[in-house]
Amino acid sequence: MDRFMLAAIEEAQKGLAEGGIPIGSVLVHNGVILGRGHNRRVQKGSAILHGEMDALENAGRQPARVYRESVLYTTLSPCSMCSGAILLYGIPRVIIGENRTFLGEEEWLLSRGVMLEVLQNGECIDLMTRFIGERPDLWNEDIGV
């Protein structure tokens, strides 16, 4: 498996171990991880710290060209908020661990020219399936249901 998706999965596992939602992400530029993150809404009492948003925040401020040359890896299909950030910063490619447990805004991203690759990774699917089964209340809160 790709080392960057492995890093995203490690982030998801960190989130779960901290009592949060197991979604992880990494922003990669020229083969180097600029930022790693995981969903920390529970841990930080945050309204916006999804995995992708946390990875972008942890990458720090970057020149526009860096985002346009980067790849975002995420363990789960990106929601509306995270997809908006992907479009805002012009990230051209997103590698998605899985979209079976949640189908985010993939059609919107595709319609705006973002290249997507969905892996249907078994570990990503298992993490989310178990979490949703154990904490449907927290999951529904996270996706605004």
Summarize the helices and strands and which ones pair or pack:
Layout lengths: L2 H15 L6 E6 L2 E7 L2 H4 L6 H9 L4 H5 L1 E5 L5 H10 L3 E4 L9 H6 L3 E4 L3 H13 L1 H7 L3
Parallel strand pairs: 3-4, 4-5
Antiparallel strand pairs: 1-2, 1-3
Helix pairs in contact: 1-7, 7-8
List keywords for this structure.
5 strands, alpha/beta, five-stranded mixed β-sheet
Could you explain the architecture of this structure?
This protein is an alpha/beta fold and 145 residues long. The chain has helices at residues 3-17, 41-44, 51-59, 64-68, 80-89, 106-111, 122-134, 136-142; strands at 24-29, 32-38, 70-74, 93-96, 115-118. A five-stranded mixed sheet has the order 2-1-3-4-5. Helix 1 runs parallel beside helix 7 and helix 7 (122-134) crosses helix 8. The N and C termini lie far apart (33 Å). The model has no long low-confidence stretch (mean pLDDT 96).
Radius of gyration: 14 Å
Strand order of the largest sheet: 2-1-3-4-5
Strand content: 15-25%
Mean pLDDT: 96
Structural class: alpha/beta
Distance between the termini: 33 Å
Give a short synopsis of this structure.
48% of the residues lie in helices and 18% in strands. The protein is α/β, with parallel strands linked by helices. A five-stranded mixed sheet has the order 2-1-3-4-5.
